[in-house]
Design a protein that fits this description.
binds iron/sulfur cluster; two-stranded antiparallel ribbon; about 45% helix; eight-stranded mixed sheet; about 450 residues
Length: about 450
């Protein structure tokens, strides 16, 4: 009889869990994810529509240093309300970006995480034990630190909140940015204290740790956090995920990686050779190549190139594809990131005939390839449909003027080769001034 009760109660709790998990709006992140912004302000995740700040019970954004205990943090009214809404098929406002993607037929970050966690025992237990008001037991499986704006590059599409070196350029050119956030991002991660204090509780059930920046390979706090995970004996269960600019060599860090389950490195490279040096200023292509080769040779590393598709590289993507194709153990096409900001680098600043030219160039390149791998076919189709879509969109004349002005000012300030010498297709956007000869 007792046996029957046990199985009945298990069946009941299983069916409650499945009902909660099958809620149409549930996302695992408010249960399992711990995420801190560039300036150590806590956020729900990096995909929320606005800044996604986590608020304390007085409605104020919290910083890492304000967190006394992880249990208390995950049971703030802010989190309880989100979980309660999700378990009741409601859509928390803060997550509107995900639901909008789904409503328009796309695949959201929420759906991606749900497919990862929907059969994860720890997560299912957490959901089963979540009280009706949203209170939960803590079980952090996923860590996401945007570790400061310390970076050695000044990429053309970036801003001082992500690379402090750009502050001077923005000040000189009078381009507005959030100076308080930028200063916070420059100094708030400098102390190891909070990471040291919180890491034992954070690493107890950890399985993935994403680090972005800034450039994570430069960051001492990141290195310290990995040492702490190794000391806790948890490294073998944790996969490390990075976005790196591939220009910083850090042998000590790479040795430490040998303790971890895996290292997934997203290599941010936007073009081949001198055009990449132009877009991602501070890059030496020769050094980048040698670092990429070392990363690819590391036994724990799985890598993929991530490329920000923009007006500056749309005509030269095929050169990058050819370079990637020669590299071993790496997907032969990059993961394309569509440029949303800044608008002045979006491909819609290009006149129709230039967008058509870019489409023809890519289309004829792909016609010569015979991809068998379905993810490569998907990437190929995605970039071609992106260009097709853009052909039906308006020519953004206002942002084209910003592009012309910004590019020439940056070239002058940084002593760069004119872009039309690197990308002849852009020459018509910068007509040479007529010269008058007097006899
Ligand atoms: S639903 Fe989307 S925005 Fe909300 S926590 Fe999940 S991934 Fe982040």
């Amino acid at each position: 009889m007792a046996h029957k009760n046990l199985s009945e109660s298990f069946a009941l709790s299983y069916s409650i869990t499945m009902k909660k998990v099958s809620s149409k709006t549930i996302c695992p992140l408010p249960w399992v994810h711990f995420s801190a912004h560039l300036d150590t302000t806590m956020r729900l995740c990096c995909n929320t529509g606005g800044l996604g700040f986590v608020l304390d019970d007085q409605g104020q954004p919290l910083k890492l240093k304000d967190i006394e205990s992880i249990d208390q943090y995950f049971n703030l009214d802010f989190y309880k309300k989100i979980r309660n809404e999700m378990m009741n098929d409601e859509k928390p406002n803060i997550c509107s970006k995900c639901y909008e993607v789904e409503d328009s037929g796309g695949f959201s970050v929420r759906q991606g995480y749900l497919s990862l966690y929907e059969s994860n025992e720890d997560f299912l237990n957490q959901v089963a034990n979540t009280k009706p008001d949203g209170e939960t037991e803590t079980c952090v499986k996923s860590l996401d630190f945007s570790l400061s704006n310390k970076c050695n590059l000044k990429c053309v599409m970036c801003s001082p909140d992500a690379s402090f070196l750009l502050k001077k350029d923005f000040d000189t050119l009078g381009i507005p940015y959030d100076s308080k956030f930028t200063e916070g991002a420059n100094k708030n991660w400098n102390s190891f204290d909070d990471v040291e204090r919180l890491m034992p509780a954070l690493s107890e059930n950890l399985s993935e740790y994403l680090t972005t920046g800034g450039e994570p390979f430069l960051n001492k706090t990141h290195f310290k956090s990995l040492e702490l995970i190794v000391e806790q004996g948890r490294a073998g269960q944790v996969a490390l995920n990075y976005h790196t600019n591939c220009t910083v060599e850090n042998q000590k860090l790479w040795e430490l990686w040998n303790n971890f389950k895996a290292v997934n490195a997203h290599l941010s490279i936007d073009a081949y050779s001198s055009l990449d040096e132009y877009i991602r200023q501070g890059t030496s292509w020769e050094k980048l190549e040698s670092i990429v080769d070392k990363l690819l040779a590391h036994p724990k590393v799985n890598a993929e190139v991530h490329t920000c598709v923009q007006a500056l590289n749309i005509f030269n993507l095929t050169d990058l594809y050819e370079w990637i194709a020669q590299k071993p153990d790496i997907p032969k096409l990059p993961f394309h990131i569509w440029m949303h900001s800044p608008r002045w680098l979006h491909i819609n600043i290009l006149p129709q005939r230039l967008k058509e030219l870019a489409f023809i160039k890519l289309d004829s390149y792909f016609k010569k390839q015979s991809y068998q791998d379905e993810t490569l076919v998907l990437k190929k189709n995605q970039i071609l449909s992106y260009l097709r879509r853009s052909l039906n969109e308006d020519h953004d004349l206002e942002q084209l003027e910003v592009f012309k002005e910004r590019i020439k000012k940056l070239e002058e300030m940084r002593g760069l080769t004119p872009i039309e010498n690197l990308v002849p297709e852009l020459k018509s956007l910068f007509p040479t001034k007529k010269r008058f000869f007097f006899f």
